[in-house]
Structures are given as structure tokens and as C-alpha cells.
Amino acid sequence: MRRRARLMAVITVLCVFCVVCTTGFMVVRAMGKSSIMSKGGGQEPAISTDINVMDKVEQWQEGWIGYKDKIYEYNDDIMTFLIMGIDKKDRLETVENGGQKGQADAIFLVVMNPHDKKVDLIAINRDTMADVEVYGQSGAYSGTVKAQIALQHAYGDGKDKSAKLMEKAVSALMYQLPIHGYLAVNMDGIPTINDTIGGVEVECIEDLTAADPALGAGENVRLEGETAFWYVKYRDTNVFESNRHRLERQAQYLQGFIEQARAAFRKDVTLPLTLFQKLSPYMTTDIKADEVTYLATTAASYEFSGEIYLLDGETKMGDVYEEFYPDEDALHQMVIDIFYEEVQQ
Q1: Nearest to 338 by CA among 69, 108, 121, 181
Q2: pLDDT confidence bin for 14, thresholds 50/70/90
Q3: Residue whose C-alpha is closest to residue 193's, from 244, 260, 249, 251
Q4: Residue 138, pLDDT above cutoff 90
Q5: Confidence (pTM)
Q6: Beta bridge partners of 304
């Protein structure tokens, strides 16, 4: 009887421990979700509405927009994260001197929609002409100019200030879209992040043998080490719209990376922590530990839609560099397609 009593006592203690651990995990997870959603500021994109659609509805509700004879409502449960690849060597660190802070050569939005449990990717051309805030050597604000959006990163400190400036610029480009977190990774960190998940398989979509002999057009390649770096980084600046072609490669690589990472994570649940530790010297982020807990457990049930949205528009040659001008109608439509839901009448 005593042995049975001791066994029951042990079982009870273990049960209590499990309840405490589970409750603690759920609390941290809930805090993470609350923290993420608070970053959106409760705002909605500043999308204009069609007055003609409003006139056809007897009781128009606040938050609705009219577009092409339909009514839409912003999905405020969506979580959007800005991912950037910074054109800078060595580790990512705060820099005081001008000209050494790096530009955002790769710019993506990762969109997580809990309503259909899908993840979408939006690729933004680094040459997109946007409102860029200019700061002097002392850090004093000196005005706003129209320039390639990638330059906005260079007017910060090379780390969090630069990332926050990019977040603001990308949000403004997308009609003040709420963004719930950022992650900026130095391009030199690509081999590390790539090899940690076991490499990424791609079919090389253009001839890059000038950078790496393995990267011939049409070749099926498992990207590892420096080969992965050149696949997402290289471009011939003497070729017009070379950045657009590179952006297509980056989008293709990111698509393969997501699938490979999901498979690797299923085999090793500690891999996200390993990846975070190895990337730390090369990255900056405002995504906190409790938010990571929420995202890691939530993302496991999501599926990547397989579609990567690229902004439609036109590339023109500026006085010195190429300039990309988004098609406003296409941009408007894309924001509605991804971030809004139709209101059924």
C-alpha cells in the first residue's frame, strides 16, 4: 500500500508539473501573439474606396472599402513580417560612419493568414522608387527624397535604426500596411543559414558561371556554401534590369528555402534555436523570444501557398542608376487580394 501511495504521489506531482509547464507555455504563447499584434498599431492600410460602391449599400460600415463593384474588409488577424538581405560584408553591427551601413538588396514581406492558414510572399524590387528619409552624418533629419527604396537602410545605423527606417518605407509604399516585425540578415550570413538547414535545391534560371562554374543555366544544383551566396547575390550591373532577374532568383531560392526548412524542422525541433544562434552575428530583429514561441508553434500548421507576388511596373534608366516604378493599379489590386476579404451581401 505504501509503495502504491508513493507511486500515486509521484504521478500526481508529475501531472501537476505537466499542467504548470503547459500553462506556462500557453501563457508565453499568448503573450507572444499579443505582442506581435500590438506592433500593427491597430491601423489599417490607407486604401481609397469607390464612392459608387458606397452609394449602392444601405448601411455602410466603418472599415469597409469599395473596389470594382465589390465590398472588402481588412483582415486584421494577418501577421506581416519584413525580411531583408543587407549588402554588407562581415557581421551586422552599428556603424557611425556614412557609406558603410549597407543597402537592402533583398526585400520580402512574409504574410501569415490565420483564416486559411497560408503563408504568402511579396518580393519588392530594391530599385523601387519610394519616399526615402534622409539623415545627415550627425543623425539629424534633413528631408525626404524620391529614391531607390534600398537606400533607406543606409540612412540608419546599420542595425535596428536602419531596419526600422526600412519598415516605415515599405509600409508607406504598401499604403501604410501594418508590419508586425522585421529581420535583417547580412548577405554574408547566407552560407550559414543555407547550410544549417541542409542546402536548397534549385534549377538555375540564368547563366551565373561568371560567379560560380556550378551555376549554369538550366542546371539542377543543390546550393551549398558560397554557391548559395552567389545565387542570391550576383548580378551583372552592365545588364539592364539585372536586379529584376536577381529578384526572381531570390524569390525562387526563398521558396525552396521555406520547403527545405519545414522538412528540416520536422526532423529536429531544436533547429530553429540552432539557426538563431548561428545567425545572431549576421542579423538584427525586433522579434522577441515570446513572439518566436508563438510563431514557431503556429507556423507548423501553416502551408506555403507556393506563390510569390512580384510588383508589376516599369524599370527606367535614371541619371545614374535604374529606377523601378510600380504600377499603382496592380499594387492596389495586390494589396486587396492578399490583405482583404470580400464582404458578402
Answers
A1: 121
A2: very low
A3: 260
A4: no
A5: 0.83
A6: 119
